[in-house]
Amino acid sequence: MQPKPDAKVVLPPIPAKRYFTIGEVSELCGVKPHVLRYWEQEFTQLRPMKRRGNRRYYQHHEVLLVRRIRELLYEQGFTISGARNRLAEAHGKGREQAPDEPVPITYEVTEAELEEMRGVLAEALELLGDPGGDAANDSGQAASHAEDADDGDDDERS
User: Domain spanning 1-108: which CATH class is it, in words?
Assistant: First the structure.
């Protein structure tokens, strides 16, 4: 299967949560749940936590890993074996770590994703009352007011 250069799928942003169900990861990564379960068998780095009746809970780094696997397989045209090898190369062979230890991954962020993150952070600052922004403005105003009021009376205050 040849990758299509114009067929880059835009995936939704990953919410700031600690754990994701298999259904949520499926939607965030554009991959069906049965494919995720299969990939768990094929990629040793992908090890979601299992709780309550064998329910899977993925962490943020695993969602990023699923997206990377998806990109290698669906967009770049790698085979599963090739994608496995590419991930091992990218992570310093990855086999030096204990099997239960999460494998750190890197994720390239597009400019659009960065802009979206900046917007989310700006909204969060607004909700918090923008303490950093107001302080910067207040200190600038305070400095200009201090200059206006400075008429050589500093010796009287000492």
Answer: mainly alpha
